[in-house]
Amino acid sequence: MDKKVTVVGAGHVGATAAQRLAEKGLSDVVLVDIIEGVPQGKALDLMEAAPIEKHDSHLTGANAYEATAGSDIAIITAGIPRKPGMSRDDLISTNAGIVKQVAAQIAKYSPECILIIVSNPLDAMCHVAYEASGFPKNRVIGMAGVLDSARFRSFIAMELNVSVENTHAFVLGGHGDTMVPLPRYSTVAGIPITELMPADRIDALVDRTANGGAEIVGLLKTGSAYYAPASAAVEMAEAILKDKKKILPCAALLEGEYGYNDLFIGVPVKLGAG
Ligand code: APR
Fold first, then answer.
1. Which residue among 6, 7, 8, 13 has the greatest number of ligand 1 atoms within 8 angstroms of its CB, and so is best to mutate?
2. 3-class DSSP state of 125
3. Is the CB of 122 within 6 Å of ligand 1?
4. What's the confidence (pLDDT) of residue 83?
5. For ligand 1, atom 10: residue with the closest CA
6. Residue of the CA atom closest to atom 35 of ligand 1
7. Quick one: pLDDT at residue 176?
8. For position 85, what pLDDT does the model report?
9. pLDDT at 141
10. What's the rounded Cα separation, in Å, for the pair 39 and 51?
11. Residue ranges in the chain modelled with pLDDT below 70
12. Is residue 11 lining ligand 1, measured as CB closer than 6 Å?
């Protein structure tokens, strides 16, 4: 295929993102992980599903970065996930070291690529990747708002018993306690949910959205969510690969916008090739 996406971290989020990229026919995929055999094994397994899933994406696995050279996008999921009782911020010391090393390697082999950061705590890991890569701010973006908005949309659809396709939602701010779901900009078939639900139900859905990650961690016990996070990262990748210029909530570096400086925060971003 003419597009190439590297996914670093062949764990739950990374492998699922690789699967979605391939099954949507978006790109070839290179899976990278420090564990020998795992990215190679998962890539081969996914390749062997290709005749059934009917895609021609080529998937390879690697423990080093030479194979990632010339990637259009690198999705960084390397790091440790949360366990019950942990906040995303508890991951910072471990994941900062990992993301720093990964971003530097990606930048060395794919100096023109766009980084989509998934590792948590998201906003801080974006900053680490931004500094380690040396990339301009338009090429370092974080996946949080697309996931949080998808969770909010799911809960709105469940509450009103309508198709998820009729829902639209915007969740901005941080990926954690400082998340800001925006009910006034969240709609069903164009109608704000503030006209469709009582305030206490909106508050309940907003609260469930803000704690959406913890709800899954509490159920899984051994790790954190990965199906929806992978979908969200791949929606961002698709917008970039196809130069869709799609407005999505993403973590981006603010330099004076909204009165903030030098912080990665979830804001509306127009995602396309540039
Ligand atoms: N380079 C490459 N891969 C690494 C490195 C590294 N330096 N360090 C760890 N990894 C790999 C691990 O070997 C593991 O396979 O990252 C993978 C992480 O996978 P999981 O443990 O399954 O975690 P996952 O659920 O995928 O979450 C990954 O995404 O959503 C966030 O909070 C989550 O920070 C976490 C990240």
1. 13
2. helix
3. no
4. 82
5. 78
6. 81
7. 77
8. 86
9. 98
10. 20
11. none
12. yes
